[in-house]
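Handout, section B. The chain below has 598 residues.
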Amino acid sequence: MLDITADEDEFSQAMDRAFRKTAREIQIPGFRKGKAPRGLIERTYGREVFLRDAADDVMDRLYREALEQEKLVPVGEPDVEIVELEPVSFKVTFPVFPTIEPGDYTSVRVESEDATVTDDDVNEVLEQLRRTQAPWVDPSQPRKAREGDQVNIDYDVKQGDDNFQEPVKDAQFILGETNLLVQLRERIEEMEIGQTETFELAFDEEDTAADPSIRGKALTYTVTLNSVQERQLPELDDEFAKAAGDAASLDDLRQQVRDDVHQGKTSELRTTVVNKIISAMGEGAELDPPSVMVDEEVEHQINHLKQNLAQSGTPYEAYLRAQDKTEDDLRDDLRPNAERRLRNSLLMQEIAKRDKVEVTDEDIDAEIDRMLGPAPDAESDDEGDEQQNRMREIYRSAYFRNMMKTDLLDRKLTDHLIEIATEGRGAVLNGWEPKEAPEETVAEDSAAIAAAAHADEDAPSDEASTSTTDVGNDASAGNAGSDESTSSVVTAETADQDSSEDTMGGVVTIDTGSVDDAAAEFPTLEGERGDGWVKGDGENKVPDGYPIKGNANSMIYHPQESRFYDNTVAEYYFATPEVAETFGFRAPKGVKKADSGA
């Protein structure tokens, strides 16, 4: 709180300025407008006509001078109490940027993690691939359903004599994989093919596994088991490798899988180590963020959730209903995590400032050169050179330079923390190393920056803090849907608000300046279709003329030669790879990027 009083001379001068300003608009009989003497105006209207303007003038200037003198940084709107008007005396209360005492963070030590990939790790992924490639067939002998089987059922649900929902025909579930109600699954496993059973299922008020809409209710189910099918697993051989992974042989597929697992494990373990470091450093720090800053972080998380819900086509209100929460409940749930994220972010800013971890314009220019390679000849008419020149123009914008600055600062700071806490050993032992030459990864790096333009501008590197969880709208059949959902089990991917110990998002990211005025360089996908693209309908059905599959979460597109093409359920379909790249999508590893020849 600041207690400020203007001296008499200062306030007298402010009164003179207020008189000159106000008098121009006052008409006194016998005088031209604005020409009446001050004494007459004061006798007619009272001194109060000038006092408020004078007070506002003085208070604004004295407040700014006091902030500068006391070296205070407000982080919210001030609350002003006027004690006296002449000369003005007032009290200002406002939240300030917190004092940060990072403690002995240089003494924090953590162990490095081992990213070695075992044969069991590879075999587990190969088995998953076999399952995704396996056709569904009837068992050789009729039998009851068991875990892993796909069942086709008709079901009707009533509450008393009334329909609880519309009857459902030909619903398909995979037992043990689809999030089917446990009680319903147990009944299905007791039935014979072709059998119809009617039974009652009661759900406890406190049963958190059940959807809120059925808790405390007794529902009557009538279920017909139409069919039971099992997976026919393909042989693990060269033919399987060609079909499942676009690999030359089984050995080639194993190596691809090993590299993918190794890369993912290395990244995951590095994040784990950084999280441990930040958590340990946070425990030793003295830092109490003001509530207004925590409120803003909560609001940021809610906006981020709404964006993710909008991308998946799930209304925000439907999400709240599925969680059985009000928005106030959600804010209360988010607040502890928001405070932790904010606290860690402020601490990282302080450490970066104390240890002079910074990014210069030269660093950004070098990063652009690393990503794009040497600048092409200005007179070149090569199509690839043309695209690189376009990318260089994009990177000159304030928005992209700011984005790269944030990303580079995150990298530098996390590297610095790892260096301190592991005493130079590194976060990950036996980690994955990229095999491509830098110029071969230019396309991916460029597209990754472009894709980030569509992400939340307040947290450009928020990838680590976003995951998905299923929300089922049909509470009576399944708690949530799955990839095998039917029309009666509607699923939607939404943001997971746990956001556990993310690092490159809300924890480490340091604000390097406003980008509000920077225009996005890539167009957005709005509506159901556009020039060269159509929106997916949630099924793995490729529209005629739009063979390129686009994944909106990863911003990766899959041409038909991609080994993930068959299994990708796309949010968008494009006529050509070039169209996909126009919207910031990038090709997956191992697939040549359009226009680049890389």
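Note. Confidence is low (pLDDT under 50) at residues 437-507, 509-521. Compare this with the example in section A.
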